[in-house]
Specification:
mainly beta; twelve-stranded antiparallel sheet; three-stranded antiparallel sheet
Length: 226
């Protein structure tokens, strides 16, 4: 029986975070290097790993999460190998080296607890969507894992004059130094929901990347948030 299953065995650890296939994240856990992960994402682990739902660092964000942005997180600590997934979504691993990334919370799977993070309002969109769009910004030195509903495309905005336009329901993440603005087309009165995605786009310009999934999230990204 082992012979036909050999190709699915875990590969040797080469990094703190890495993919095992397209839909699973493997994290090398070490004492003192804690991880924040989406609640319910653990599918297996080896070694001694403990879990703390709603840790103090997350409770401090509760006020910001009243805006509607945010995801339930748990703190993972200990030694061993931890495997995470999110209903078969593709997993994208990023190693931040002093950079930042602005992430749609529904696409946030896990990140190193030592990274700086918080919920921030996206500037330039309030006039299009009530109180605007809120995203989770993560920065510093460490690892981040995102999910995508299908294999994503990473668009390099390149720093030129041309803008990159994205349906907000298909947006996963972007470089926070990019300039963002909204653009209306077709029916200006239809700004909310998957069915009207083509009536509203987010325009990005500057030096950085935009990560787009080949599926429109069922959550209305641009609803009014207080």
């Amino acid at each position: 029986m082992n012979q036909p299953l050999a190709g699915y065995a875990p590969a040797p650890v080469t990094a703190r975070m890495e993919n095992h296939g397209d839909h699973m994240l493997k994290v090398a856990m070490q004492t003192g290097n804690d991880l924040l992960a989406r609640v319910g994402s653990m599918i297996a682990y080896e070694g001694f790993i403990q879990y703390e739902p709603d840790p103090p660092a997350v409770r401090q964000m509760a006020r910001d999460w009243a805006t509607g942005e945010g995801a339930p997180l748990m703190k993972c600590s200990g030694d061993g190998l931890l495997y995470l997934a999110d209903y078969g979504a593709n997993v994208v691993v990023l190693n931040l080296n002093g950079e930042g990334i602005s992430v749609n919370a529904t696409n946030l799977l896990a990140f190193d607890a030592g990274l700086t993070w918080g919920v921030e309002r996206v500037k330039g969109l309030a006039k299009f969507a009530g109180q605007g769009l809120w995203n989770t910004k993560i920065s510093g030195q460490g690892w981040v894992a995102l999910t995508s509903r299908g294999k994503p495309i990473v668009v390099d905005c390149g720093g030129g004059d041309d803008e990159t336009y994205v349906d907000p329901d298909a947006l996963v993440a972007w470089s926070p130094n990019l300039k963002v603005k909204g653009k209306r087309s077709f029916r200006a009165q239809s700004l909310i929901g998957r069915g009207s995605g083509e009536a509203y786009q987010m325009a990005f310009s500057g030096q950085g990347i935009v990560v787009v999934q080949p599926s429109e999230d069922s959550t209305d990204r641009l609803r009014v948030r207080g």
